[in-house]
Specification:
This protein has about 200 residues and is of the alpha/beta class. The protein has 5 helices and 12 strands. The protein has a single domain, classed as 3-Layer(aba) Sandwich (Rossmann fold). The radius of gyration is 15 Å and the shape is globular. Pathway: Cofactor biosynthesis; pyridoxal 5'-phosphate biosynthesis.
Length: about 200
């Protein structure tokens, strides 16, 4: 499996490790490539859109011609995992004129809904499709305000959606790559396969 991590800005190494761990649980290997230029995404089986600064990520993926390739990737049914700022960039409505959203997830997003950096927190969050709660790390986390009719809500905190699935895209307000638990990456990329014991 070839996994592309959108690496224009954000936590790239952690996502690379997590997708390798998820693949290994299915007795597969993942070749991870960092995407900073156009021409790489079309060769990828899966994509990861990491956290970081959503305005910077949005500006750079459009400037470098990567945005259209991500849209084509999703249109072809290939999976994407978008986390934190990645959720904002992939949304329909980022509620911020500085972000040119990709419209891959039919949600509107409230940036920094859970507060600033000092308000970061961790919580055990029940996630649809997982047997046990996921230890979620929220850092300047967004929340989802509105969910479109075709979007499945996978997890909520205080009644607000923090993880959703829209077709081949799984998007979270938290940072699953900052834990040793690969189950969110597993949910995004291997949703119908049993983990190899």
């Amino acid at each position: 499996m070839k996994a592309g991590v959108i690496a224009v800005q954000g936590d790239v190494a952690e996502h690379a490790a997590a997708v390798r761990n998820a693949a290994a649980a299915h007795d597969e290997s993942a070749e991870v490539v960092e995407v900073r230029d156009a021409g790489i995404v079309p060769d990828c089986d899966v994509l990861l859109m990491p956290g970081g600064e959503s305005t910077t990520i949005s500006r750079l993926i459009h400037r470098e011609g990567i945005a259209a390739e991500i849209e084509a990737h999703v249109a072809s049914g290939k999976p994407v995992l978008a986390t934190c700022a990645g959720l904002i960039v992939c949304s329909n409505d980022a509620k911020d004129d500085r972000v040119d959203p990709l419209g891959l997830v039919d949600v509107s997003v409230d940036r920094n809904a859970f507060g600033r950096q000092k308000d970061s927190f961790e919580a055990k969050v029940p996630v649809a499709g997982l047997d046990d709660p996921f230890h979620a790390v929220f850092i300047r986390a967004p929340a989802i305000d509105e969910v479109g009719p075709g979007v499945e809500t996978l997890a909520t905190v205080d009644g607000r959606p923090v993880a959703v699935r829209d077709g081949p895209v799984v998007a979270t307000a938290f940072h699953p790559e900052l834990t040793d638990d690969p189950r969110i990456h597993d949910l995004a990329f291997f949703p119908e396969r049993e983990v190899v014991a």
